[in-house]
Amino acid sequence: MTAVQAPYARIAAELRGRIERGELLPGDRVPSTRAITQRWGVAMATASKVLALLGQEGLVRAVPGVGTVVAARPAAGGPGRRPAAEDDTAQRTRIIRAAVALADAEGLAALTMRRLGAELGVSAMSLYRHVSNKEQLVVLMADAAFGEEALPERPPAGWRERLELSAALQWRLYRTHPWLAGAMNLSRPLLIPNGIRHIDWALAALDGLGLDADTRMHAAVTLFGYVRGHAVDLEPETDATRTSGVTGQEWMHAQETRLAALVDSGAFPAFAAARTGSALSPESLLHHGLTTLLDGLATRITTPPH
């Protein structure tokens, strides 16, 4: 015969589950005794026992002038509790994923701590227990994004193929996350581990080719910056398409009459001659420049690869 759980224990278990799943983050208010009586239809004494039990487990704490909130460091060892460090990691991961999804959908400008809190159903202040500010959040988002495209453990044999693969993976990331290129800055680099991994990959690819360390470093960072530079236009283009409903290709098509008039004016003969048969796209420009960059680097290699 199954034992009937006391009302206060049942309600506490429901709130405990919400805390463990990260639906209520540290600093978030939990239902007050009055709210518990109204929602679950129990007496005030029962509602008090709910909060008292959660407090004994170290899950909540009373804050004068605020109410009862989720504890910043839930005590380990309570019924069904995970270690606090594991909880904190899971909650931060949840915050980062939600921030990336928001930036992907609406751009980095739309990402604010208040908006993110609303998306997660928590207060903005509770987010600061896991990230110091928006700047730190963006760093964590960028690192998480670069971590989505893992470089293979077994790289291609040739140095050029390795650099081409790294560039392709970076471009794909920027396409997936249009805000990412704008968040990067070579003058004040974010120093994210998953981004540095691409630099390290390029340096390893260029090792043993007769290039000095300074040349290898410049080549690796130049490659990274080259791809990022082409990707910087992706977020403005995504924003323009979203707000206007007109794609870049449609916009260019609408400019054909004006462009034809400029060409036919005779003021730009070289442009008119080269335009015939030329089809430009973000990808064609990326690949043309990458080929030229790697061709130039090849001329500086003095030791043939084995």
From TrEMBL:
<feature type="DNA-binding region" description="H-T-H motif">
    <location>
        <begin position="112"/>
        <end position="131"/>
    </location>
</feature>
<dbReference type="GO" id="GO:0000976">
    <property type="term" value="F:transcription cis-regulatory region binding"/>
</dbReference>
<keyword id="KW-0805">Transcription regulation</keyword>
<protein>
    <submittedName>
        <fullName>GntR family transcriptional regulator</fullName>
    </submittedName>
</protein>
<dbReference type="Pfam" id="PF00392">
    <property type="entry name" value="GntR"/>
</dbReference>
<keyword id="KW-0238">DNA-binding</keyword>
<dbReference type="InterPro" id="IPR004111">
    <property type="entry name" value="Repressor_TetR_C"/>
</dbReference>
<dbReference type="InterPro" id="IPR036388">
    <property type="entry name" value="WH-like_DNA-bd_sf"/>
</dbReference>
<keyword id="KW-0804">Transcription</keyword>
<dbReference type="GO" id="GO:0003700">
    <property type="term" value="F:DNA-binding transcription factor activity"/>
</dbReference>
<dbReference type="InterPro" id="IPR036390">
    <property type="entry name" value="WH_DNA-bd_sf"/>
</dbReference>
<dbReference type="Pfam" id="PF00440">
    <property type="entry name" value="TetR_N"/>
</dbReference>
<feature type="domain" description="HTH gntR-type">
    <location>
        <begin position="5"/>
        <end position="73"/>
    </location>
</feature>
<dbReference type="InterPro" id="IPR036271">
    <property type="entry name" value="Tet_transcr_reg_TetR-rel_C_sf"/>
</dbReference>
<feature type="domain" description="HTH tetR-type">
    <location>
        <begin position="89"/>
        <end position="149"/>
    </location>
</feature>
<dbReference type="InterPro" id="IPR009057">
    <property type="entry name" value="Homeodomain-like_sf"/>
</dbReference>
<dbReference type="InterPro" id="IPR050109">
    <property type="entry name" value="HTH-type_TetR-like_transc_reg"/>
</dbReference>
<dbReference type="GO" id="GO:0045892">
    <property type="term" value="P:negative regulation of DNA-templated transcription"/>
</dbReference>
<dbReference type="InterPro" id="IPR000524">
    <property type="entry name" value="Tscrpt_reg_HTH_GntR"/>
</dbReference>
<dbReference type="InterPro" id="IPR001647">
    <property type="entry name" value="HTH_TetR"/>
</dbReference>
<dbReference type="Pfam" id="PF02909">
    <property type="entry name" value="TetR_C_1"/>
</dbReference>
